[in-house]
Structures are given as C-alpha cells and as structure tokens.
Amino acid sequence: MINMIQNAKDQVAALAMAAYHAAVADGSLPEAEVKTAPVEIPKDTANGDFTTTFALAASKALRQPPRNIAQTLLDHMALEGTYFASAEIAGPGFLNFRLNDSWYADVCAAVETEGETYGTNDSLKGKKYMVEFVSANPTGPMHMGNARGGVLGDTLAAVLAHCGAEVSREFYVNDAGNQIDKFAHSLEARYLQIIQGEENVPFPEDGYQGGDIRDLAQEYYDINGEKLLNVSEQERQSELAQFGLSRNLPKMKTDLQRYKINYDLWFLESDLHNSGYVAETVDMLTANGWTYEKDGALWLRTADIMRENLLKSGKKQADVDKLDLKDDVLRRANGFYTYFAADIAYHRNKFAVRGFDKVINIWGADHHGHVARLKGALDALDLNGTERLDIVLMQLVKLLRDGAPVRMSKRTGKAIALADLLDEISVDAARWYFNAKPDTQMEFDLGLAVREDSENPIYYVEYAHARICSLLRAMAEEGVAVPAQREVDMKLLSGETEQALIKQLAQFCEEVKLAARDYDPSHINRYLQELAACFHRFYNACRIKGEAPAVQSARLKLADDTRIVLKNGLKLIGVDAPEKM
C-alpha cells in the first residue's frame, strides 16, 4: 500500500516545517503559529515536481514577505537523504522541489513488491459499505440505463474495496406493488387472448405492451394449457406473475453475469411486506410524530422534515419558504403501503439491521426528486440518512452507430436491451464506455467501440498491454528475462519520457483514492488512457531490444512495471488485459 505521490507530498511538508523550526531556533524567523501548507503537483513540470505555498500561508503570521520567508526556509533546509535533488523559489513565494533518482527507483520497487495489489490503500479500512445498483423492475428486459448503472455500481464497489472498505453489492428486486400488479394484469390479458382471441379480451390501457409479455404468456400456455381459464382472477394473476418472475429474474442474473456483474444479495421487496417490516417502519414514523391521516390515507410529513433539514444546513428561511415541498402517502386508503414506504423500510434495514456505515445507490437522473425525501425519512427514524446515504445520479445514454442515433436493435428490431448490446459489442467495450463520468450525458458510439485503432480508447489501452507482453515474449525467446528491481540502475532511466512514465505509474494510487472520494470510477479510465499514452511515447522514443545490456535491462523492467499497472487498472474496471491482439 505504498503511495509514492503521497510520500513525496508528506516529505515536502515535513521539510518546510523542519526548516521553519530550524530558522526559529537560530532567530532567522520569529516563532508563531504556522500550519502545514498544502503540497501540490505543478501543472507545468518546468516549475518542479512538487510545490508548497508554505511561505505564502505563513506570511501574515510571520509579518514578512513570502519570498523572504521562502529564502530563509531554503537556507535552513537539508535535502540529504530525501526524495529531492533541489528546491527553489518561484513567483511570489512558492517553494518548488525536484525529485531525485531515489524516488523514481522506489516507485518501480513498489510496483514490483506489491504486484497485483499495487494501487490499493487502507483509507476506508474498517468501514462497511453497500452499493445498490441496477435494481431494474423484473417485469421486462434490462435496458441501456441499466447497462450504464450496472458498470458504474460494480466498478465503484471495486474501487471502494481497493480502498480497504468491506463492500456488498446488492440488487433490490421490486417484486411487489403497482408494477407487479400491472405485470400480472398484462400477462393475464395476453394469456386469455391466446385462448379466447385478441378481439374478445381487452388489453389494459396502462399494461406492458412489449413482445416479452406475449412470449411469457405463450410459454405459460404451452406448458399449462387452459389451466387458469376457470380459476379466480386473483389466483390467475398471482400464478402468472410468479411464472413471469421465475423466468425474468434468472434471465436478469444471466445477463448481468455475462456483463461480469455478480451480486452478494438479491433482496426481495416482497420479503419486507411479508415479514411486516414495512408496517413496523411506518409505525415507528408515527410514534416519532411524523405522520398524519387524511382522506383515509396515512401521510408522512415530508415537507416538515425537509424544511427542518434545509434550515439546519444553513439555508435561509425565506428561501426555504419559496420551495414547493409536499408530503408523501405511506399507506393508501385501501390499506396498501406505497413504494415509498417500502423504500424507507428497505433502507432502514440496510442501516438498522445490517449495520452498513455508508449506503450508495446508483439511480437514474429522473429520480433526483426522490433523494432528499428518502434521506429525510431516514433522518426521521434517527438513522442519519443525510450523512449515511449517498445517491449517485447518472445521466441518460445516447446510443450512436458511426455518428447516427440508434433507437432499435438490428438483431431484434426492438428497443436496445442489455442482451442486444452485448450481442453487438464485446463485454469489455461495454464496460469501458459505460464507466463514464456519471453526471454527464454520454454518447456511446457502437461503431467506435469495435474499431481497432487508437481512436478507440479501450483498444488503445489494451493494445499497450498486449504490446508489452509481445516484447517480453520476444526478449524471453532470446534468453533475456525481466530483471529484479535490485539489479536495475535507475540512473539510466533519466530521460524525459522514462521519468514521465514512472510518474504516471505512481499516479495510479492517487487515482484510486480520487475515484472512491468522488464516487466516480471513470477516474480509472482516464488514468489508463494517459498511462497507455505515456508508454507508447516511451516505447517510440527509447529503444529496448539491442541497447547496451544495462540500459536494456532498466527499460525492460520499466515496461514490465507498466504492464502490471495496466493490468491492475483494467481489472479494477472489470476489463480483460489481453496478452495478444
């Protein structure tokens, strides 16, 4: 779990503070309360490898110009035994530091030592996280939005686990409520139409029109014939709905496994109702004084809860008063609980029963209005939903083929479903492209996704890995093996492209932390593209095969370290690292 970027930053901060204390000790600077200043990587490496604003931040407390402070710090700074060859003043008082060979050597040593675990850290160690994603209604095939949510949730879970968290992946199966009732009525109509003729059985106006409903009804009829013709409507609908779910859920699992997604738990909404947990949760809200009855229904005082939370967060009363806040029904006049009531109970179960420290849901952007309401309901149950529940809202996917919009599958002539998509492009390409920044609408070009050139980023990155593997095989055939780090003279890797590549290897550890912090696993995609670019530049500028033995050995080692990090990054987002292309 070695992070050489962080190690260097920590060392710069320590050097600046040690120099300040040395200057205070000999009277060069006055003693005052100064704090460790941030250490950053300059955008332009001509300004050094790391920089600190210590002198600028301390200027007010020390009552001296920043450049004077910076010069005094330099006069009292000892770089011997550190990762830095030099330090210098720039601009109004920045202190810029330049790395020496030992840092570059330790980066490569860390990659070699940690191997498959390089890039992991323990920043979330001891934390119990759940990521709930996809959770598509089991009434039909999964669509493009589910495809995007699937890879975002799965990759985010992997990133959080890389940071030491105990992570559970979960699919919430909505096998109760209005959508199942509509599913049952739709199947019933199609079933009866098979027996009595379409002209004799009306189809529900709000029913599911998809061909999959017809297929399920036909499949049931082929197996059971007219078994349900003369039973009660309730019995017929119940059996058809259960039959449909028994076919759809395994198909969902199969499609997701094909997509390299495996869940720790498929949680059934029906279990919440059947166990009485929904009713118990609503009773708790009532006991806490957050419900009232109106028109025979039970309502949650959602507006009051949200108003109270907004005021606590610092919003002005006048601004809050302008909002159109509304209450929510928890139990209808007919005695049935709403989906919102079940959702509150489900999240109460996550926190109160299973003890997750943090729950992250991946939702479509059209659910944005539900976020504050659900968090508020959990706050009303004293579960601190505001802090413990996080929602990642993902924008829509616009599907293209060679620049033209695509709305229908060429294979089926129907709307693009996950299965249709994976029939057209590779799973790896789908996972790569859908692992885009969640809060931006994405354009997914099917034509680009199958191209075998540098314009296709997944091909570009995988090709870098395959290119290294090909090099290693060619060298092995000549009896040249990748050396151990201790056998390499790192001073021979002093070229611009070589050092840029090593810096990029070090950056992987930072990108994993950023992906977890931002709930944005697309950090890894962008990182891998830049790593591949750095490698290709290095490979084109620095000959390996046929160079002097010491140089060849050092560059071969660097190439192999790059292979390891490319493979680790691709594995993190669920993409293969091919050895041949």
Report on the structure:
The chain is built from 22 helices and 15 strands. It is α/β, with parallel strands linked by helices. The strands form 4 sheets. Strands 7-6-5-11-12 form a 5-stranded parallel sheet, sandwiched between helices. It has a 4-stranded antiparallel sheet with strand order 1-2-4-3. Helix 6 crosses helix 7 and helix 6 packs across helix 8. The model has no long low-confidence stretch (mean pLDDT 95).
Q: Low-confidence runs (pLDDT<50, min 5 residues)?
A: none
Question: Biggest sheet: strands side by side, in what order?
Answer: 7-6-5-11-12
Number of helix segments?
A: 22
Largest sheet: 5 strands, parallel
Strand content: 5-15%
Task: Write down the overall mean pLDDT.
Answer: 95
Query: Ends: how far apart?
Result: 32 Å
Oligomer: single chain
- Helix-strand makeup class: alpha/beta
Bin the helical content: 40-55%
Shape: flat
Using only CA atoms, what is the Rg?
30 Å
> What is the number of E strands?
15
